[in-house]
Specification:
The complex is a heterodimer of chains A (about 110) and B (about 110). Chain A is mostly beta strands and about 110 residues long. In chain A, the strands form three sheets. In chain A, strands 2, 5, 6, 10, 11 and 12 form a six-stranded mixed sheet that branches. A four-stranded antiparallel sheet of chain A has the order 3-9-8-7, with no helix packed on it. Chain A has a two-stranded antiparallel sheet with strand order 1-4. In chain A, a hairpin with a 6-residue loop joins strand 5 and strand 6. In chain A, about 35% of the residues are buried. The mean pLDDT of chain A is about 95. In chain B, strands 2, 4, 5, 6, 9, 10 and 11 form a seven-stranded mixed sheet that branches. With about 110 residues, chain B is mainly beta. Chain B is globular. Helix content of chain B is about 0%, strand content about 55%. Chain B contains no helices and eleven strands. Classes of the chains: A mainly beta (about 110), B mainly beta (about 110).
Chain lengths: ~110, ~110
């Protein structure tokens, strides 16, 4: 069965600090896809990134970076030099190759204080 | 703006009633997904439609039903509403429903049962 665990319920940082959000997943499939979504206070879900199970290259997009490690079944998300606008709930999600659904973690609330 | 449109944004009704939530997918997307976000259950997959046909079911109650119409918009019908059905209901769409395609979410319909 698929499972996504985001152990950090809530993180508070001061602006300009770096912060890493952890995500650990479980799946029996060898082909699967991992996603991160952001839910700002306004409530919508915003797609951030997708990673394939066969591509372990890390990815950087501006202040965002993602570290995928199959050996530890982790897909962590780092925000560098955090800003108040980064305050949101961040969800990690998993989709198996022959499934049609996203399985979400419980989410991590990130609060960035000025 | 994800391109996915959900109406209404808010819905307040009473126990025992029936409501219909509407979703228009992004232009060109054939797949529509419904998710429920509640405080106790988190984000849960309900159902997936592809080009008018049901493709997968998740934790969807028998009191809930959905359909996708020829113009690809979808409706989620919730009947015999209970207090526990209060939640944020999201619709998402993707081009073809293949697992590696990101799902893009609408802003959600917030359902409150009084």
């Amino acid at each position: 069965a698929q499972k996504v665990t985001q152990a950090q319920t809530e993180i508070s940082v001061v602006e300009k600090e770096d912060v890493t959000l952890d995500c650990v997943y479980e799946t029996r499939d060898t082909t699967y896809y991992l996603f991160w979504y952001k839910q700002p206070p306004s409530g919508e879900l915003v797609f951030l990134i997708r990673r394939n199970s066969f591509d372990e290259q890390n990815e950087i997009s501006g202040r965002y970076s993602w570290n995928f490690q199959k050996s530890t079944s982790s897909f962590n998300f780092t925000i560098t030099a955090s800003q108040v606008v980064d305050s949101a709930v961040y969800f990690c999600a998993l989709s198996e190759a022959y499934g049609n659904k996203l399985v979400f973690g419980a989410g991590t609330i990130l609060r960035v204080k000025s | 703006d994800s391109g996915v449109t959900q109406t209404p944004k808010h819905l307040i009704t009473a126990t025992g009633q029936r409501v219909t939530l509407r979703c228009s997918p992004r232009s060109g997307d054939l797949s529509v997904y419904w998710y429920q976000q509640s405080l106790d259950q988190g984000l849960q997959f309900l159902i997936h439609y592809y080009n008018g046909e049901e493709r997968a079911k998740g934790n969807i109650l028998e009191r809930f039903s959905a359909q996708q119409f020829p113009d690809l918009h979808s409706e989620l019908n919730l009947s015999s509403l209970e207090l526990g059905d209060s939640a944020l209901y999201f619709c998402a769409s993707s081009p073809s429903g293949i697992s590696n395609q990101p799902q893009h979410f609408g802003d959600g319909t917030r359902l409150s049962i009084l």
